[in-house]
């Protein structure tokens, strides 16, 4: 079928919008070239991965790709999808409310071309126009870098009732891997090395057996990995928050695709022959992107997650071309301990200038401000880690909702 783009022109600018698989394929060359030129590649915006995800979501989501040209020269691509999105408003881990809105979700890393201020202004105008048309309630940018033009503009250009007022700023951490395991340990403090040895010995003692890690990469091991990941994840607080591992069609599709391409790395830590932690991810160029991690909370005092992380890094250094370990979204103590570089990011919404979306924005912003105040108070009291740990412990006995949100 021939691609028939929705096309808009204004002055010397032209916009093409791809809403079908055929139209997405028609811009493959431009997309792939811009992806290669990115300084920080994003796994979710790889075109083949995007198409795989959209194929699995075809009953509930629609592709939506914006290609912006200036004088016939492609300047930027915005990679998104239209879907019904539940906006979770939380105080800590407690969900206060979760309204559903028709959303244009912009994937993480989904603005390709490193657009200038001028190009970003034109992109934001287009997104604002889409909201005014009435089919979409909100545009969601998943984790924008704070120094990007699109982030700054999205915070000040929209009508004041449609702006996002309480974005949560979090660091995005990476670790640059040295050429040898010896060099990796050389950069580590003596006290940290002692702690790692102590954790391993503690695991061996608790399980009455050796601690070893196995890396699974082939398609015939996917069922085994999924079985272990499902069993461990079901015991964790992430499962109650609906962000844990899930055995579904999309997970199996992406795992199978990665195994066939030779990019899958699924790690399981065994103690005394029993699995106590897992981590699987994708090797993309010279970057490793962890997809899911988890450990059995029964062994928490032995830090099986930390032991597995160190063994994963050792394997990547010795047996791959990976030079960057990308931790993904959010802050965590272990990321700060082992990370070598970070930058601030925040997710941003722009709401349509209509009553219902504006009300949701006001409610969400109010909850966000309450979160900020409470976090400040708890931080001043020095109780953040203690409170998180106690809250997570309580969640481990809670059953999750039946519906999950797809990470973007």
By DSSP, the count of extended strands is 15
Task: Characterize the overall form.
Answer: globular
- CATH top level label of the largest domain: Alpha Beta
Structural class: alpha+beta
Helix share of residues? 40-55%
Query: Could you tell me how far the N terminus lies from the C terminus, measured between alpha carbons in angstroms?
Result: 29 Å
Low-confidence stretches: none
**Main beta sheet:** 13 strands, mixed
How is the largest sheet built, in terms of strand order?
1-2-3-4-7-8-15-9-14-13-12-11-10
Oligomer: single chain
What number of domains?
2
Q: What does the radius of gyration come to?
A: 22 Å
In what range is the share of β-strand residues? 25-35%
Mean pLDDT: 88
Count of helical regions: 14
Looking at this structure, what is the CATH superfamily of the largest domain? Gcn5-related N-acetyltransferase (GNAT)
The CATH topology of the largest domain corresponds to Aminopeptidase
What is the N-to-C succession of helices and strands? EEHHHEEEEEHEHEHHEHHHEEEHEHEHH
CATH architecture of the largest domain: 3-Layer(aba) Sandwich
């Amino acid at each position: 079928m021939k691609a028939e783009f929705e096309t808009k022109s204004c002055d010397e600018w032209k916009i093409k919008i791809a809403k079908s698989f055929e139209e997405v394929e028609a811009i493959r060359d431009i997309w792939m070239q811009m992806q290669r030129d990115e300084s920080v590649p994003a796994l979710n915006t790889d075109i083949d991965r995007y198409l795989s995800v959209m194929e699995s979501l075809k009953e509930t989501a629609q592709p939506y790709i914006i290609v912006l040209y200036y004088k016939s020269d492609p300047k930027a691509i915005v990679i998104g999808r239209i879907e019904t999105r539940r906006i979770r408003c939380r105080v800590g881990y407690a969900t206060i409310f979760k309204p559903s809105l028709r959303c244009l979700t912009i994937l993480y890393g989904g603005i390709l071309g490193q657009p200038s201020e001028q190009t970003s202004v034109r992109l934001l105008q287009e997104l604002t126009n889409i909201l005014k048309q009435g089919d979409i309630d909100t545009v969601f940018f998943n984790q924008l870098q704070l120094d990007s033009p699109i982030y700054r503009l999205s915070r000040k250009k929209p009508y004041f009732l449609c702006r996002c007022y309480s974005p949560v700023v979090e660091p995005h951490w990476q670790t640059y891997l040295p050429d040898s395991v010896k060099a990796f340990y050389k950069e580590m403090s003596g006290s940290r090395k002692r702690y790692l040895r102590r954790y391993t010995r503690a695991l061996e003692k608790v399980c009455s057996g050796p601690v070893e890690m196995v890396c699974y990469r082939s398609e015939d091991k996917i069922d085994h990995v999924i079985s272990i990941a499902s069993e461990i994840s079901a015991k964790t607080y992430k499962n109650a928050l609906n962000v844990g591992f899930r055995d579904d069609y999309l997970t199996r599709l992406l795992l199978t695709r990665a195994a066939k391409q030779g990019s899958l790395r699924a790690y399981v830590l065994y103690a005394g022959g029993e699995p106590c932690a897992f981590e699987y991810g994708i090797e993309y160029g010279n970057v490793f992107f962890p997809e899911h991690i988890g450990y059995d909370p029964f062994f928490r005092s032995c830090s099986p997650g930390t032991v597995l992380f160190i063994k994963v890094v050792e394997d990547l250094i010795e047996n791959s071309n990976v030079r960057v370990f990308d931790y993904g979204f959010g802050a965590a103590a272990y990321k700060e301990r082992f990370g070598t570089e970070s930058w601030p990011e925040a997710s941003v919404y722009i709401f349509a200038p209509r009553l219902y979306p504006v009300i949701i924005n006001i409610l969400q912003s109010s909850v966000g401000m309450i979160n900020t105040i409470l976090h400040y108070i708890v931080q001043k009291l020095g109780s953040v880690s203690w409170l998180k740990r106690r809250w997570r412990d309580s969640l481990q006995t809670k059953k999750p909702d039946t519906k999950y949100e797809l990470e973007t």
